[in-house]
Structures are given as structure tokens and as C-alpha cells.
Amino acid sequence: MPEIFNHHFTRSELTRHVGDTSQLFGVDLVTHEDGPERGLRVLRFRTGGGLELEVLVDRAMDVGAMSVCGVPLGWRSGNGFRHPWLHEHDAEGGLGWLRSFSGLVNTCGLDHIMGMAEEGADHFNYPYRARVAHGIHGRVAFTPARLQGFGERWDGDDCVLHAEGTVRQVTMFGENLELARRIEATVGGRTVKITDRVTNLGYRTTPHALLYHVNAGWPVVAAESRLSLPLERTVYHAHDPHATSIGPLEQAAPQVGFREQVYEHALRRRADGMVPVLLANPDFGGLSGSRGIGLAMRYDGRSLPAFYQWQNLHEGDYVIGIEPATCHAGSREDWKKRNEMIWLEHGDSREYRLELEGVVGEAALEAMVDEIDGLR
């Protein structure tokens, strides 16, 4: 039964109060008409529980903006949400990805994650493709989806907002991978659920890797913010941790000349395989009657065994990334040697689950921290 503005309604009670439920919640398909976003299709979700989000249909159905009670949770770079027609994946020595990088969720893959890399292409069995060059974080993030459907689904007195689509990463004599994505948000709730299935539609054995680049900005990221993790240990630094006074958990105000810091953390799972993470600003007072704001994540640690933290506290590019992934730190050759690279035969699939929640108020933040602490 939905709780909307502190009122619980059955479906019949709700329809007695409003002639059209879109007055309170719904999913709308809109298109941007100006600037670098021109032509970009967006699904706007409103749950009626304070959660609003935008699904960027033409950017792999990633979540661009997300807010709770009007407070933004995600980060947006100066790039905005460029339409893919402007994206140049192979530009700048493989760094072209950065010219489109923006938003709460950027899906990295489907055959490569992390920094630029090159490898042999014998597995594709094509004489003119001797090598495969991978740009940073792969190709899928800025690929348009085929929208399969969206709307509302009632089950008795409960209602779920949903959208489904597929994204193909394909080339002749190379990979032919499909991402099938379903996004759900319960009416009255503050959580969005992303369920993904990656399938090899081709007839060549194909490598697969996936990373969710989830990016929080101010006011979730602030000098008072803290990252709570069911932490076993930190297993990797991409920087010299002795060269900085800023560690991974306690965040700092925007810094002059800050160089990004990247960690890999080993985290504990719940009994059901899910891993809870919280990035919160407990001192945020911008909500009437509540203190504290946070972005909570839960992901399936069985299919996503690695977890990275990207800490970029530079002024103007002020962002924290929390990033579950299929592969641990290292090169593609390292992944192959450690049998971490996933090889998909024709018809093989892998499934992934990710949940993002807007957390408001001291009690809700403390409950989330208690859930995380219970695993440590």
C-alpha cells in the first residue's frame, strides 16, 4: 500500500482522491531540445515518496539525475548529459569517454572496464583484426537503448514504476553483446532497483567485464561526509596513501590541486549476497524538519566481487564514486591470469543487481549504518 505524503492509500482510496494518478507519481518520456543534450530521450520517474530520477534512454538507460525531497544526490560534470551523436569513443588516445562522463550512474563495459588497454584479437578469428584497443571504461555507457516499455504496474494495492530496454555493443568480426536492463521504483518509496542481464548474441567467444560508476556530489559529498562500508580491508591504492592526509572514509571540502585517489576495498556480504554501502552527510540541514542526507547502495557481491572508491575532491570536479565491478585491480592480462575475465560463449548470460536509495534524516541514516556495522 503506497505511503504518499504520510498518507496510506489502497488503490480504490487513491482513485477517490485524484482523477489521474500522474498528479502524484508516474513515468514520463521527454526529449531535450537544446544544447549538447538536444535529442536525448529521458524517462522521468516520480514515486510520490520524495524520490525523482531521470533515466537517460540514449545513454544506456543510465540514471542521470536523482533527488530525494528535492535534494540532488548525484553528480553532474560540466559535460552535462551529451547526446551520443557527439561522443567520440576512440578520441584522445582512448580518453574520449571523459568528454561525456556525467551523472549518478555510468555503466562501464561491456567488454572492458578501467584504463585504456590493448590486447590480441585471436578469439575473433578475423585476419584484419590483429589487436583490440579498449578506451577507458569501455563503450556501452553512451550507446542508445531500444526502449521496450515503461509505465506503472499495479499488484493489488501496490504499484511499481518501471522501464525496460536493451543496449547492443556490436561490431562485425568482433563482440556482439546485449545489455537488457529493467529499472523499478515502488510508488511511495525512495529506492530504485536496476536489474541487468548481459548476453553474448554472437557466435565468437567474447570477453565480458562490468563496472557501475556511481557518482555522488554535493550535498551528499561535503566536508562532514562519511563513507560507511562493511570493510574487511583495503587491498589496493592507485595513489601513494602516505602522500595525502585525506583518507577514504572521512571526506574533505573541495581542495586546490587535488589529484584523484582510487581504492579497492574488500567488503563483507549479507547472507543473501547483497553488500550495503552508505555515503552520507549527517550535518546537512537543508530539509525542513530533518537533518542529514545520504546515498545508499546495495549490490549483489556474488556477481560483482570487486568494489572501488574514486575520490576526486578537486574544486569544480567535486565527486565521490562508489563502484562495484566484476574484476579486481590490475590489467586485463592480470584478470586473465587470475581467471577473473568472464568469457561468454554464444547465448551465455550474466545477471547483476544494483539498488540506490535516498536516505533522509538521522534515524534512517543510523539504521543504515547499523546494517553495515552488523556485517563488520
Could you characterize the architecture of this molecule?
This protein has helices spanning about 10-15, 330-335, 360-375; strands spanning about 5, 5-10, 25-30, 40-45, 50-55, 60-70, 70, 105-110, 115-120, 130-135, 145-155, 160-170, 175-185, 190-200, 205-210, 210-215, 225-230, 230-235, 260-265, 275-280, 295-300, 305-315, 315-325, 340-345, 350-360. The chain is mainly beta and about 375 residues long. It has a single domain, classed as Beta-galactosidase, Chain A, domain 5 (Distorted Sandwich), CATH 2.70.98. The strands form 6 sheets. It has an 8-stranded antiparallel beta sheet with strand order 11-12-13-14-25-21-20-17, with helices on one face. Strands 8-16-23-22-19-18 form a 6-stranded antiparallel beta sheet, with no helix packed on it. Strand 12 and strand 13 form a beta hairpin. The chain is globular, with a radius of gyration of 21 Å.
Distance between the termini: 34 Å
H/E element order: EEHEEEEEEEEEEEEEEEEEEEEEHEEH
Q: Rounded to an integer, what's the Rg over CA atoms?
A: 21 Å
At CATH level 3, the topology is Beta-galactosidase, Chain A, domain 5
Percent in helix: under 10%
Given as residue ranges, the uncertain stretches (5+ residues, pLDDT < 50) are none
What is the compact description of this entry?
This protein has an eight-stranded antiparallel sheet with strand order 11-12-13-14-25-21-20-17, with helices on one face. It is mainly β and 376 residues long.
